[in-house]
Q: What sequence folds into this?
């Protein structure tokens, strides 16, 4: 029987930069989808599920690349159609849409089957590569991007655990907090002192 790492240990092993970048990329892709829907809602409504999923994946990957490219210990591999993030020597991630039950869609190619199956390292016990699926929960009814999530599975359909990713807006996130833009000052109002009358423009009382 396989022994699986706990989610908290995996999040710690990936580090805040990676986990927050994954969460931030989901938020930015969701913003892109809102812009796309606002610009041409008919195109979004008419898009096939596969077509829309591919569009979102491209936007998510573009943001993730911008946030993680050049980060020490992180390797980004873009060999279409397979895109992967490798962190250190222990973690390999792919980015996918998750359904409400945690399931993901993938063609049952040999490389996909090998990725989803958590392997056992006989030569160097304890040095197994953990394969993870990051991404987002898909709200099918509204066709909206939901929460950023990370899942571990052993086989495509066997979800061991699924957890939300830390919010990139929290302290320690990858995006710096920008100061608020200065607000215009309020106009000053002179209130007459009780018992006195203000002079008019022609000097009369």
A:
């Amino acid at each position: 029987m396989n022994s699986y790492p706990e989610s908290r240990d995996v999040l710690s092993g990936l580090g805040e930069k990676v986990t927050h970048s994954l969460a931030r990329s989901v938020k930015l892709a969701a913003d892109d989808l809102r812009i796309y829907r606002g610009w041409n809602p008919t195109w979004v409504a008419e898009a096939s599920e596969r077509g829309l999923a591919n569009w979102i994946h491209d936007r998510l990957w573009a943001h993730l690349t911008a946030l993680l490219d050049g980060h020490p210990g992180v390797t980004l591999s873009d060999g279409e159609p397979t895109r992967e993030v490798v962190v250190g020597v222990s973690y390999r991630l792919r980015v996918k849409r998750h359904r409400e039950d945690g399931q993901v869609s993938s063609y049952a190619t040999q490389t996909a089957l090998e990725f989803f199956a958590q392997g056992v390292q006989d030569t160097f016990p304890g040095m197994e590569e953990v394969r993870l699926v990051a991404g987002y929960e898909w709200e099918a009814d509204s066709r909206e991007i939901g929460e950023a999530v990370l899942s571990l599975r052993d086989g495509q359909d066997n979800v061991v655990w699924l957890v939300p990713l830390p919010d990139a807006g929290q302290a320690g996130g990858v995006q710096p907090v920008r100061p608020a833009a200065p607000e215009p000052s309020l106009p000053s109002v002179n209130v007459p002192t009780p018992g006195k009358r203000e002079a008019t423009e022609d000097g009369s009382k």
